[in-house]
Amino acid sequence: MSALICGSFAYDNIMVFPDRFSNHILPDKVHMLNVAFLVPELRREFGGTAGNIVYNLHLLGGDGYAMGTVGADFDPYAERMDRLGISRRYLKSIPEAFTAQAYITTDLDDNQITAFHPGAMNEAHTQPLPDDLDISVGLISPDGRDGMIQHAEQFAERGIPFIFDPGQGLPMFDGDDLKRFIEQAGYVAVNDYESQLMMDRTGWSMEEMAERVRAVIVTRGGEGSHVYTDGKKIDIPSVQPAAIKDPTGCGDAYRAGLLYGLANNMDWETSGRIASLMGSIKIAQSGTQNHHFTPDEFAAKFKDAFGYAL
Fold first, then answer.
1. What is the pLDDT of residues 120-177, one digit of tens each?
2. 226: which residues sit within 8 A by CB, 6+ positions away?
C-alpha cells in the first residue's frame, strides 16, 4: 500500500540582493515602478510541493509516489530523482512547456520579491489518478486549479482518504470550493494563517471542519501544531532545531511525516511528533531538499527529542 502525492515540481531560483529594497523603491513612485537589482548570489534549487514531500518521505523510508506534470527542462531534476532512487513513474512530461519556476529575490531584511511561472503545472488536470497503484492514502498539495479539483473527486470516488493541503493554492478557491474539498477529504493540513483564511471563507470553525474529516492539522511554526480529531485537540510540541536557516519547505517536510505516520497506522501523537521533527531538521538547511539522514539516524533524533523510541 502506497501514498500518492499530487502536486507541483518546480525549480526555485533564489537570489540575494546585498542591500535593502527600501533604499531603491521610492514610496511615492510605486505607481510607476521601474527598478533593477544586481544580485551577485544565485542558486537553483529543486522544489515544488510534490517533489519536496516525496523527497522527505523517501528519507524516512516511506513508500510513496509523486504525481505531477513537468516541462521539457526537467532533465536535471529527473537525473537527481533517479540517483536518489525516487520513482518518476507518475510524472507526465509536457514538452511544449517549462517546468514550474519560482524566481525569489531576498534583501538584507529578509523581504522577498517573488515571480512564479506555473508552466507545466497548469496541465495537472490532464493526468488522472493511476489505475495500477494500490493507494492507501493520498495528498493533494498546491497544483493547477483544475487538477486539484479533479484529483480530489477521483480520490473520493475510489474511497481513498487523502490529505487536503491547499497551501499557497488556497486563494484560488472560494468558500464553496473549500467546503467541497473538506467533505471529500479524509484530512486537512494547513498552517495557522491558512486556517484563519479557511474559517473566513467557509464560515466553519476548526472544530466544525474536524467533524467532517478524520482530522484537521494546524501547524504553528515554533509553537508546535494542533491536531483536531474525534472531538478533541491534541497538542504537538515543536522541536528545537540545530539552526534556523530557511523555513521554506518546512511544511512539506512536516506533511511527509504525517503521511509516514498514516501509512504505518501510527497514532496522532506519534505521527505529529515525526512531522514536527521533520520540520525541525529541514529548517536547519537552506533549500527544500538539501537535508539528509538515514531512517536509523532519524530514529535516534526522535528519541533524543521526545525521550522514547519510535
1. 999 999 999 999 999 999 999 999 999 999 999 999 999 999 999 999 899 999 999 9
2. 206, 217, 218, 220, 233, 234, 235, 236
Q: pLDDT tens digits, residue range 35-70? A: 899 999 899 999 999 999 999 999 999 999 999 999
- b/e per residue 165-179 (b: at least 16 CB within 10 A): bbbebbeebeeebbb
Tell me whether residue 197 is exposed, middle or buried, using C-beta atoms within 10 angstroms of its C-beta: 0 to 12, 13 to 18, 19 or more. middle
Q: What does DSSP assign to residue 186?
A: S
Cα separations in angstroms, 281 against 143, 260, 273: 25, 16, 12
Q: Is the pTM of this model over 0.85?
A: yes
10 Å CB burial of residue 35 (0-12, 13-18, 19+) is: exposed
Count CA atoms closer than 13 A to 95's CA, side-chain side: 0
Compute the distance between CA of residue 33 and CA of residue 25 in angstroms, rounded to an integer.
8
Taking the CA atoms of residue 70, residue 72, residue 75 and residue 76 in that order, the dihedral angle to the nearest 10 degrees is: -80
Count Cα atoms within 13 angstroms, Cβ side, for 85: 7
CA distance from start to end of the chain: 21
Task: Dump the DSSP string for 201-212.
Answer: HH---HHHHHTT
- 87: number of Cβ within 10 Å: 15
CB 113 within 8 A of CB 21: yes
Contact of 163 with 255, CB cutoff 8 Å: yes
